[in-house]
Structures are given as C-alpha cells and as structure tokens.
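Reply to dn_fold:

You asked what the input looked like. This is it:
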Amino acid sequence: MFLNAHTHHLSHQSDVLDLYNQFPKAINDDAKLFSVGIHPAYIKTSSIEEELAIIRENLSNKNCLAIGEIGLDKLCETDFELQIDVFERQLQLASEYRFPVIIHSVRAYQEILHIRKKLKLTIPFIFHGFNKNEQILNQIIAQNCYASFGKNLLYNKNLQIIFAKLSANQFFLENDASDVSIKEIYRTAAEIRKITIEELQLQQTENWKNVFGYEVQL
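and this is what came back:
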C-alpha cells in the first residue's frame, strides 16, 4: 500500500491510501481518511468559533486521523498574532483529544517549535512538505516531531542528502497539492535510501500505526 500522509487530491486507487486535507466548512464525505484544520491563510475572524466547533465534532469520526493542516505562515496576509491565536487553540484541541497535528510552516519553524515548548505538548507534530536544511530538520527531530516529504524530494539534491540519513521512523511521504503521484515519490524515496519500495511501504505502515494509530490492512 502507498500511504499518502497529506494530500489535497483523492486518488481513488486501490493501492493508495490518502490522508485527505479537509477544511472545516468544506468537508468531503468521499474521503476514507482525513485530517481537518484551519489553515493560517484562510482564517476568517467571523467563522473561527464555528470552524473550531466543526473540528471538535469531527474528532469523534473514526476516519479523522489528525488535525491539520494548521500552523503559521509569514507570507500570507493573515495577521500573524491572529494566526498564533488560532494555531494555539487548535493545538489545545489536539492535546485534549490526543491527536497528531499536520503542520504548515512558512518561515516560522522557530516560532512553531517555541509554541510547542511553551504549551508543553507531547502530541506528534508532522511538518508537511519539508524542504529546509539539516539544522532545522535536527531541531524538529530533537523535539520528537516528524518531517513529511513530497515533490521536492524528486529534484532537491540537498534535501535528498539529509533524507537519506533519517531514521525510518522519523518521516512520512506525501504529494500535498502537486500533480506528482505518491507512487513516484515512493520510487524516488526508495532509490535515495537504497531500499526496495516494499521495504519502504512496510516502514511507512509502521509509522502510520505509531503516529496516527491506524493499522493498514496489508
């Protein structure tokens, strides 16, 4: 099985399992598995309370495996202090219900890690679409968080180098909103790590079980 830890597309392939990104006011019931959260770029002050209530309601759905994608984005137009407030409120929900979190970070890794420390959180953070340097990756791992890799793994040589060094239990694979298939990302990831696709699939299956609490039927 090809496990896709974060996507905005539903593949509808029998050998692909998508963790589909949902927005609170646009829930797609076709998603077998999903995460749900308020993206920092789409925060609307008039609907924050309603959307938080929708997130809470969905956390009792057995198909909901994570809160996300949520986080901080210094390039979007949303006021940064408002982003922090909405982010922290969603983190409190995640902590209360013991849910992992899919993290969106644009130039805000330090702030997000600081908030994690400040709130004394132990729930898993998965930094999706990771494409930064080894120093930032080591800071993420040091706080018992994870990195999820997508299309950048196909052509970013520096990213490939640091990805090859990671322990098998420290990362996920995804295709996010790109047109690159998750199968192509798996092929590249397996080549970089010098293992078979089947070995990589087994490793990702174990990570899904440990972090999302989801047992993949092989």
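The longest helix spans residues 80-97.
Hope that clears it up.
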